[in-house]
Amino acid sequence: MRQPLVAGNWKMNGSLDSINTLLEGIKAGLGEVKTAEVAVCPPFVYIPQVVQMLSDTAVSVGSQDVSDEESGAFTGEVAGTMLRDVGCTYAIVGHSERRSIYGESDEFTARKFAAARRFGLTPILCVGELLEEREAGTTEAVVGRQLDAVIELEGIAALGEAVIAYEPVWAIGTGRTASPEQAQEVHAFIRNKLAGLDAGVADKVRILYGGSVKAANAAELFAMADIDGGLIGGASLQAGEFLGICTAPDKA
Ligand SMILES: O=C[C@H](O)COP(=O)(O)O
Q1: pTM of the predicted model, to two decimals?
Q2: Domain span at residue 106?
Q3: Which residues are catalytic?
Q4: 29 carries a ligand binding annotation
């Protein structure tokens, strides 16, 4: 039985003050969350503050990215060792905003996935197609290719110790959520693809859905057989909305 995971990706949002307020709000409602594991992924600079504020809770903290390198002359990079040092347990890799805005390739993403694991972080590997790729009928080819880059570098077993997030790019921040059936179709494709290589990995890996998830639509998405929680952007910046999503698995 896979425990659902609801992870908030705050992206480049927040300030010392607003994060205090957000976390106070989340902490006040955590007692209502019965089933899901909860995680938040703040901007790098706020991670120590967030780890400290959540130290009396079971909420995990992750980073939004991680360097593919360990240390040295890599200006602007943040290493997995540093993220572990300040209390992270997860690292998002290959978010579509990294892929599309900053040109990060499948191979580069795979190296970041490897680095996260090497330094003791659980990668949350994001995959997903652009609107034009969906319309061209290439969703499975794109998602399959993104997964293959990681499998080729790290091996199939590594995915059993990671989290996958399926995020159709056309649903991110657009208010246009994939329907539960559309999401389930791709989640099932991912799980079946992994099952073809290692049934144990496919059974174990949590596959999150991301893209305009809100308290109002989370329960129907999370009720699908292969959707094991969500990676939440905008709605994770509002305590009430985020808690509404975190408690959605309790209603299944
Ligand atoms: O990482 C989170 C996703 O990009 C989803 O963002 P969103 O919930 O604002 O659509």
Answers
A1: 0.97
A2: 5-251
A3: 95, 167
A4: no
